[in-house]
Design brief:
Blueprint (H helix, E strand, L loop, with lengths): L7 E6 L2 E5 L19 H10 L8 E5 L3 E5 L3 E7 L3 E4 L2 E4 L4 E3 L4 E4 L7 E6 L3 E2 L25 E4 L20 E6 L8 H9 L2 E3 L7 E5 L14 E2 L4 E4 L5 E4 L6 E2 L3 E5 L1 H7 L7 E6 L3
Parallel strand pairs: 13-21
Antiparallel strand pairs: 1-4, 1-12, 2-3, 3-10, 4-9, 5-8, 5-10, 6-7, 6-9, 11-12, 13-20, 14-15, 14-21, 15-18, 16-19, 17-18, 17-20
């Protein structure tokens, strides 16, 4: 990237920092998952706080550790998992609008709860679009590569005024998620459905943007035959041959060959993106 006197420079990336917007929906017929921010509610809020369109590209940071340096005067904010932000070493709460001057540094601390933080800058992050989106899809490799130290990020021009509100209450991560019966609920015994709703499910360390994998009691199937591959959506709860469920995230495959017993609501699919390995989660059926 060419040298610039504006925008941000990445000093540290933490465990994983990705550019994300609201994704590339409507491409499933091409075999492309929607991708986009794992916690879409947090991304939308971050963009609103700095006067961006809700779908502007921002940085999704896993477990904190992202440090950026401003090359010009700009406004930024950090949302998602509630945490502390350090500006030139001074602590500031997340979920507020923050002015950065030339040379100022911002460090996102590791959140005590939740997993993912979102750094939005007024004007939005600019980079090449793939199929209409700047999102990184870790399963397919579409979109920009994960951020690296020393990388310069170009920022767009603001098109909307700064909002009157410069502070928003954090969305606290939830451990109880609402779901609806899935298209293959009848492939499971009644006791399996009750077990899904009453068990305490433990989040696996193997979880990522593709799926949140859960440990707990197995869910017994009523139908043993093979299922032809069928469409998958974000928030679908699929049960593998082990009998254990997983929750598909933004980088999910577009089809799957195991039955989907339930589907999370859109909002609770965002909450699922903030589940930490080792935590327990419960499910509640939403009455339609």
């Amino acid at each position: 990237m060419k040298e610039t006197t504006e925008g941000l420079v990445v000093d540290r990336t933490g465990a994983l920092s990705l550019i994300q917007d609201l994704g590339r929906g409507g491409q499933a017929h091409l075999g492309v998952s929607p991708s986009g921010a794992a916690d879409r509610t947090a991304l939308r809020l971050a963009n609103r706080l700095v006067g961006n369109p809700e779908g502007a590209a921002a940085i999704e940071c896993l477990f904190g550790g992202l440090q950026v340096r401003s090359r010009s005067l700009c406004w930024v904010t950090v949302t998602g998992a509630p945490t502390e932000v350090l500006v030139n070493g001074t602590g500031i709460g997340s979920h507020s609008s923050i002015p950065l001057g030339p040379g100022d540094t911002l460090l996102i601390q590791a959140p005590p709860r939740g997993v993912r933080s979102y750094l939005a800058v007024r004007g939005g992050i600019l980079c090449h679009q793939t199929l209409g989106s700047r999102s990184t899809d870790v399963l397919s490799g579409l979109g920009p590569a994960p951020l690296e130290p020393g990388q310069q990020l170009e920022v767009g021009r603001a098109t909307q005024p700064l909002p009157d509100t410069d502070l928003a209450p954090p969305n606290q991560p939830r451990k109880s998620l609402g779901l609806l019966p899935g298209p293959r609920r009848d492939w499971f015994t009644p006791s399996a459905w009750q077990r899904l709703l009453t068990a305490a499910w433990k989040v696996s360390r193997d979880s990522d943007r593709v799926a949140t994998r859960l440990g707990g009691p197995g869910l017994e199937r009523a139908r043993p035959e093979e299922l032809p591959s069928e469409a998958i959506i974000r928030g679908a709860i699929q049960v593998t041959s082990s009998g254990l469920p997983l929750i598909f995230g933004p980088d999910h495959p577009v089809t799957g060959g195991y039955p989907v017993i339930a589907v999370l609501t859109d909002r609770d699919a965002d909450h699922a993106a903030q589940l930490r390995p080792g935590e327990t989660v419960h499910f509640t059926q939403i009455r339609g």
